[in-house]
Design a protein that fits this description.
- Strands 5-4-3-2-1-8 form a six-stranded antiparallel sheet, covered by helices on one side. The protein has a four-stranded antiparallel sheet with strand order 7-6-9-10, with helices on one face.
- A hairpin with a 6-residue loop joins strand 3 and strand 4.
- Helices cover 34% and strands 26% of the residues.
- It is built from two helices and ten strands, in the order H-E-E-E-E-E-E-E-E-E-E-H.
- It has a domain of 157 residues.
- It is α+β, with helices and mostly antiparallel strands.
Length: 233
């Protein structure tokens, strides 16, 4: 006698088990791919945040002016972990480069590390005083350059060695030759902070060693001039 068409219970169980195994494998593959995509996008966002902050610092530092003019004040840099929350760890005067506003002249630029409103986050804050001749100075608005800040390291190069602090008032009104900035920010996708660094060359930077060599060279030239005149006569 011929068996009627259809599947037995055992065949249905085996087919269902095979479909479940294939679906589980496909889900695991898709989950891994989507997780990797989210981590990659989050890491790209972390990199963009750090580089945006470094771009601000680089543009301002490259516009720094020598602190010996009427409006150009001192270049002051202290270790960020030693500066209080209401004091900048980096302040200097620079040529205004806000092309969008058309502003020009000399402006005071200050960078500080401040807590967020709820105190759960650290912010890299930039303040710019554009009118240095105002009779009544008001606090400049705070620009949040970077959130999730964990650590900032700034080093100053004087052509011979790196220093953790710089005060032009104590160093004959000269700027550092270069400034190294290292940022560590909290990552949105990784369990460890994201590090980024940048080396900024100061166009007006002279450094202590350069100024010393220039002064010694000028002194040697002044001493050599009378001798050369005497030998010529």
């Amino acid at each position: 006698m011929r068996r009627p068409g259809g599947f037995t219970l055992l065949e249905m169980v085996v087919a269902t088990a095979m479909v479940a195994v294939l679906a589980g494998s496909l889900y695991a593959s898709l989950y891994t791919a989507l997780k990797a995509r989210r981590q990659a996008l989050g890491l790209c966002d972390d990199v963009r945040r750090t580089h945006a902050a470094l771009d601000f610092l680089q543009a301002d530092l490259e516009s720094a002016v020598v602190p010996d003019g009427v409006l150009a004040g001192a270049f002051e840099g202290v270790a960020p972990d030693q500066a209080s929350s209401d004091e900048p760890f980096l302040s200097f005067h620079a040529v205004a480069n806000d092309s969008g506003t058309g502003a020009g002249g000399i402006q005071l630029v200050e960078y500080s590390i401040e807590p967020s409103a709820d105190g759960a986050d650290k912010l890299l804050v930039r303040r710019v005083t554009r009118n240095l001749l105002a009779t009544q100075q008001t606090d400049p608005p705070a620009e949040i350059i970077c959130r999730g800040l964990q650590q900032v390291t700034v080093n100053y190069f004087d052509t011979t060695a790196w220093q953790q602090e710089w005060s032009s008032a104590d160093q004959d009104n000269v700027l550092p030759k270069a400034v190294e900035i290292i940022l560590a920010i909290q990552s949105f996708s990784l369990d460890q902070p994201v590090l980024a660094s940048r080396l900024v060359l100061i166009p007006c930077g002279q450094g202590i060693a350069d100024e010393t060599s220039d002064e010694s060279g000028a002194a040697d030239g002044e001493q050599a001039s009378p001798g050369s005149q005497g030998s010529g006569s």
